[in-house]
């Protein structure tokens, strides 16, 4: 029996990268998946157990209507994956208001809208699971990513708040924090640039992560195998944040390869 047989799941930001990988994994393991993205053309088409919905998750009315439609059609929502996200490269003096607001609208406010709409249904049905896609950039700072860092930090603490507020409702809420994941919407533009190899040099495992690896982390948090886990922030970064950032003296002592 698959882990998610009979489960109804909503995945936002499902047209590519981690969101698409989550949607495909859940569907393979028996869930009925509502895959949500603003880019309808890029959503997975003709995939078993996946229903595509075009939705701007920053609209309270639209995400609320989508969740209501899902409940009307399937009778419940068991799993919500808040995966839609965006970033902006700019130091604070150069950040324009609309860029800051857009990053927060997608990375934080949209998550609140979705959770606010789905939690009453999860309460009524006796429980559910919410998994938020955070980032190691919400735990530590990156040069030039003030808006992204701040928004993901807010998302991480919002996750903890949701978890303690709704634990007695049998609603588990966790976040996972990817490191550098290759070929997502946020990282695809770096693949052909000279800066791309720098990540592999500083990641202890020597490589970037994959969307499929992140999907497996998300699926674990949503599964019954994680039944006593709530309010947790799970890092999946190949060991990157285990490092203080200081120079590698062992490599220096060994000398050139």
How does this model look, in words?
The protein has 257 residues and is an alpha/beta fold. The protein has one domain: 3-Layer(aba) Sandwich (Rossmann fold), CATH 3.40.50. It contains seven helices and seven strands. Strands 3-2-1-4-5-6-7 form a seven-stranded parallel beta sheet, with helices on both faces. Helix 1 crosses helix 6 and helix 3 runs parallel beside helix 4. The radius of gyration is 19 Å and the shape is globular.
List keywords for this structure.
257 residues, alpha/beta, Rossmann fold, seven-stranded parallel sheet
Please outline the helices and strands.
Blueprint: E1 8-12, H1 17-28, E2 32-37, E3 50-54, H2 60-74, E4 79-82, H3 97-125, E5 128-133, H4 146-166, E6 171-178, H5 196-202, H6 211-222, E7 233-236, H7 249-254
Parallel strand pairs: 1-2, 1-4, 2-3, 4-5, 5-6, 6-7
Helix pairs in contact: 1-6, 2-3, 3-4
Short description:
With 257 residues, this protein is of the alpha/beta class.
Radius of gyration: 19 Å
Q: Which structural class is indicated by helix and strand composition?
A: alpha/beta
CATH class designation: Alpha Beta
Shape: globular
Residue windows where pLDDT falls under 50 for at least 5 positions: none
Order of neighbouring strands in the sheet with most strands: 3-2-1-4-5-6-7
Total strands: 7
Whole-number mean pLDDT? 94
**CATH-level-4 superfamily name:** NAD(P)-binding Rossmann-like Domain
Strand content: 5-15%
- What is the H/E order? EHEEHEHEHEHHEH
Taken together, the total number of domains comes to 1
